[in-house]
Design goal:
Elements (H helix, E strand, L loop, with lengths): L9 E3 L2 E2 L2 H9 L3 H20 L10 H12 L5 H17 L9 H13 L11 H14 L3 H16 L4 H4 L16 E3 L5 E5 L11 E5 L9 H11 L18 H14 L11 H12 L4 H7 L19
Antiparallel strand pairs: 1-2, 3-4, 4-5
């Protein structure tokens, strides 16, 4: 999306970016994001061609609005449409031209997509009783004891630490450095375990946070004990915290697949429980115990009222 100086690319006033500047600019976004942006632009250009709309740059708010309408009636979700529009916005900003995606009409049409495409969050919380059932099902559904140790530690850490699954295990190769690393874990005697979280969704000023998990009196659901057993059996010193004996990082697909097996074993619908259900369950359990919404927001590292969507006290029997 950004050409070299020999192709007369410029940001403003005819001043060209040097090769070094272009390299830094490209490095500002992840490779996966670049690929997504390129797909969005290809989709947009294909829309212009197939609809006989003449393409010009900067794009007009009307053209962007019609593109949004096209995507909406192709049954794309509001969040997917917003992602495509973000790609168009990024390039306009990159070229220091007026960003049509911020036009009043465009924002209202996006809002209309959100209103018409609203869908309920059907993910159920994995609360403490369900967590216990899942843990008890591990020996019945997982033949390898090493895998049981891994999954037990992941499930308990996700619940007690309000973690997103993507913070613990890798989605793809590009995600390996973003999950919690072995060096981010530190046992601190009787106090428990410290975990440094270097990347998370609502980071402020790119500042990592350190989470202290205290030992639980109930050894069956103690995350500190589970992590100690895991690190004693898997003694790698670097790379992602959760890795197999071979050194390969534990994948999200592996965790989700085995979570489904334990849910099915317990007669629960696996379609209603996702990786995020541990985080939802943690918020729900904290609310049940009487913690304030503000405190739950701190525990889950939310910087908005999004926590309100995750407290599901009425979704299960107390």
């Amino acid at each position: 999306m950004v050409k070299s100086p020999t192709n007369t690319s410029s940001i403003s006033n005819g001043i060209h970016l040097t090769t070094g500047s272009l390299q830094l600019l490209v490095a500002a976004i992840a490779p996966s994001t670049r690929k997504a942006y390129l797909r969005s632009w290809a989709l947009f250009l294909n829309f212009c061609n197939s609809s006989n709309f003449s393409f010009s740059f900067p794009c007009s708010p009307i053209l962007i609005s019609n593109f949004i309408s096209h995507l909406h009636f192709q049954n794309l979700s509001a969040s997917t449409i917003t992602s495509h529009i973000s790609a168009l916005s990024y390039v306009h900003k990159l070229c220091s031209v007026n960003d049509p995606t911020h036009h009043f009409v465009v924002r209202k049409i996006l809002k209309g997509c959100q209103q018409l495409k609203k869908s309920p969050d059907t993910r159920m919380p994995i609360t403490k009783p369900i967590l216990l059932k899942i843990l008890s099902a591990l020996p019945e559904t997982i033949p390898d004891n090493n895998n049981i140790i891994i999954l037990r530690a992941i499930f308990l850490l996700a619940f007690h630490g309000f973690f997103r699954l993507g913070e613990l295990v890798v989605q793809d190769k590009e995600h390996v450095a973003k999950v919690i690393q072995r060096t981010d874990l530190n046992f601190v005697g009787d106090q428990g375990v410290q975990i440094r979280l270097n990347y998370f969704k609502h980071m402020k000023n790119n500042q990592p946070v350190t989470i202290l998990l205290s030992p639980s009196k109930d050894v069956l659901i103690c995350p500190v004990r589970a992590l100690y057993i895991y690190t004693s059996n898997f003694n790698h010193k670097s790379g992602p915290l959760f890795a197999f004996k071979s050194g390969a990082p534990v994948s999200r697909a592996f965790v989700v697949s085995n979570l489904k097996s334990t849910l099915t074993f317990n007669g629960l619908n696996p379609n209603l429980y996702k990786g995020h259900s541990f985080r939802i369950g943690a918020a729900t359990e904290a609310a049940r115990l009487g913690f304030s919404e503000n405190y739950i927001q701190q525990l889950g590292r939310w910087h908005s009222n999004a926590v309100q969507r995750y407290i599901r006290i009425n979704s299960f029997s107390l």
